[in-house]
Design brief:
By secondary structure, this protein is α/β, with parallel strands linked by helices. It has four domains: 157 residues, no CATH class; 90 residues, Helix Hairpins, CATH 1.10.287.70; 132 residues, 3-Layer(aba) Sandwich (Rossmann fold), CATH 3.40.50; 78 residues, Regulator of K+ conductance, C-terminal domain (Alpha-Beta Plaits). 60% of the residues lie in helices and 10% in strands. The protein is built from 21 helices and ten strands. It has a six-stranded parallel β-sheet with strand order 3-2-1-4-5-6, sandwiched between helices. Strands 7-10-8-9 form a four-stranded antiparallel β-sheet. Helix 1 packs across helix 5, helix 2 crosses helix 4 and helix 13 runs parallel beside helix 19. It is elongated, with a radius of gyration of 36 Å. The N and C termini lie far apart (91 Å).
């Protein structure tokens, strides 16, 4: 009989484990209740916070007023929602069918008789872990209409900030434990002495009165309703006040440090969320002088970018400027994966002060992707070939600087023309092209100078006006002259296009 029941139970557990529908439904509710990155969780949390505040407001209104039908209906619906939520959390806390599969399979493998009491005890302990959690107790008690004020504690469950704060506080259990023991010992000693010294004080009738006096004295509140009347008690009060100041200082320091850690964690999390929202960005590795100037130009050009550096001071400076920056080692594959470099980075710019580090970043990026464009700064000319061999697409010497690099990121064609001109390339010319014929709708964009590999530096009007770095939307008129940089053959092609009035025909 036992083996028959075990077999039926195992079949049922396997059906649940392999059921696509059951798994999808449970996964949805588990994500909705527990997964911070689930897209619908924040809407659920906001809805539950609103419901909690509304029901507590109804409770406060009900103290001195009669609750009408609609308010009563809202409370009934809220109780129903809280009950459903509690049972859903109870359900998704663990997968009982997996425990059943593991235990029954173990019995069959060892060929032993089913030990049902051990199985039921394990299942009971598993669910009891959920029931005894502080927030689970609050969830259960707050369902009762008479305990509605407890629902305010449920906000801690729905608020992302408080959830993170409690998780950080949990890492400080030892420090808070030491502080709790210190406060408890101080209160106990002070209360006992005060109870002895103030035996004849009519306001100290019980030991709790002494405890009350000790607590408000340590907290430096001193309401004045219980005051020492003997010399011994007054001396004790003086020492207790100083002890209270010390305890409060320790508590304040501990809480402040914890809050600082939480704020940093929230900022880091939001920065990662920012990357998740980007479709494409430029990764800048190293925030020195050149990196600072480059980021400024990218920011002015409204190009999305992310800064990574291993020095805290530089990261703080980048964040102060409003940039998204991370304290991390870009030469590590884990860092690149966390930043979703393969999926979203269009360029990786290596601007650290060490060529060895730049080469390490190049190798790490290239090991993950063969298509990402990598630009690296060469601090020493002898390392340029090594960087190219490692997989860099372009090498930026110290003499060129961030201005040319920013130009490359905005327009590779313009960068190539300026680079070759600066490099004193004998095959690159700067010429003026006359607009001999121009129809009414001839725009600079219709010439498609970039297609010919040329850079239009400016437009000289017939009246002598000079338009530097003209926009594509600039209209051209007969008699205007274009200042163009490019190779001779390419300039010739652009000239022919200009003679045709910007038309391919």
């Amino acid at each position: 009989m036992g083996n028959f029941l075990a077999k039926k139970l195992l079949i049922f557990a396997y059906r649940l484990d392999t059921s696509v529908g059951y798994g999808a439904v449970k996964s949805f509710f588990r994500n909705l209740l527990l997964n911070e990155s689930f897209r619908y969780k924040k809407y659920f949390d906001y809805s539950m916070i609103t419901l909690v505040l509304v029901t507590v407001g109804i409770y406060l209104y009900d103290i001195k007023n009669e609750t009408g039908f609609w308010l009563t209906l809202i409370e009934v619906c809220a109780i129903l929602v809280f009950c459903i939520e509690y049972f859903l959390r109870f359900w998704v806390h663990s997968d009982m069918h997996k425990i059943i599969i593991a235990r029954i399979s173990e019995w069959e493998e060892l060929r032993v008789r089913p030990r049902w009491w051990k199985l039921f005890l394990e299942l009971f302990k598993n669910k009891l872990m959920f029931v005894l959690q502080p927030m689970s107790i609050v969830d259960l008690l707050s369902i009762h209409p008479g305990l509605r004020p407890l629902r305010l504690f449920k906000i801690f469950r729905y608020s992302e900030i408080t959830r993170g704060l409690f998780s950080i506080l949990a890492t400080k259990k030892y420090e808070f434990g030491v502080l709790f023991v210190l406060i408890t010992m101080t209160v106990f000693i002070a209360s006992s002495l005060f109870y002895v010294f103030e035996a004849d004080n009519p306001k100290v009738n019980t030991y709790f009165d002494a405890v009350y006096w000790s607590v408000i004295t340590i907290a430096t509140v001193g309401y004045g309703d219980v005051v020492p009347s003997t010399t011994e008690s007054k001396i004790e009060s003086i020492f207790l006040v100083f002890a209270g100041l010390g305890v409060l200082a320790m508590l304040t320091s501990l809480v402040t440090t914890t809050l600082g850690q939480r704020i940093s964690a929230v900022r880091e999390q939001r920065s990662h969320e920012y990357i998740g929202k980007l479709k494409e960005y430029i990764l800048v590795c190293g925030f020195g002088k050149m990196g600072d100037e480059l980021c400024l130009r990218l920011h002015e050009s409204k190009i999305d970018f992310v800064v990574v550096d291993i020095e805290q001071g530089r990261i703080d400076h980048a964040k102060a400027l409003g940039y998204k920056a991370f304290l991390a080692d870009a030469s590590k594959v884990e860092t690149l994966k966390a930043l979703e470099v393969v999926q979203k980075a269009s360029f990786v710019i290596c601007l650290t002060k060490s060529d060895i580090v730049n080469i390490s970043i190049i190798l790490a990026v290239r090991s993950m992707s063969k298509t990402i464009k990598i630009i690296s700064k060469a601090n020493e000319a002898k390392n340029e070939d090594k960087m190219l061999f490692a997989g860099a697409n372009e090498i930026i010497g110290l003499g060129l600087g961030a201005q040319v690099l920013a130009e490359f990121l905005n327009s590779p064609v313009s960068y190539q023309a300026v680079y070759e001109l600066i490099a004193d390339d004998k095959h690159v010319l700067a010429e003026e092209l006359l607009v001999e014929y121009a129809r009414d709708d001839l725009l600079l964009s219709s010439l498609e100078a970039g297609h010919f590999g040329c850079l239009v530096l400016g437009v000289i009007r017939k009246d002598g006006e000079f338009l530097f770095n003209p926009k594509e939307s600039v209209r051209l008129y007969q008699g205007d002259r274009l200042v163009v940089i490019g190779r001779p053959k390419r300039i010739e092609g652009l000239h022919l296009r200009l003679l045709k009035g910007g038309s391919d025909a």
